[in-house]
Specification:
- The longest helix has 17 residues.
- Helices cover 49% and strands 12% of the residues.
- It is built from 4 helices and 3 strands, in the order H-E-H-H-E-H-E.
- The protein has 80 residues and is of the alpha/beta class.
């Protein structure tokens, strides 16, 4: 299980997969899983990073959940 790796490595950061973040606003399970990941990270002293933040509404939801960092097209498009 990927969760067992958390016990082995004591991460400083946990990335929340794009699949959950891009569906955060329209899928109850994606929201619940994202919240659980955030809570887990906070309880072990790790920061969270939201992948695939593509517009303001998702960023607002990420901030409301207390996720510390965001990455994606809303933040900055890739540069050469």
């Amino acid at each position: 299980s990927n969760l067992s790796r958390v016990m082995d490595f004591h991460p400083d950061f946990i990335k929340i997969d794009a699949k959950f973040i891009k569906n955060l606003l329209n899928n109850k399970n994606a929201y619940i899983i994202t919240k659980i990941i955030k809570d887990l990270a906070g309880n072990i002293g790790a920061f969270t990073v939201a992948e695939f933040v593509c517009h303001k509404d998702i960023q607002n939801a990420v901030v409301a959940l207390g996720i510390e960092f965001s990455q994606g097209y809303y933040i900055m498009e890739p540069a050469a």
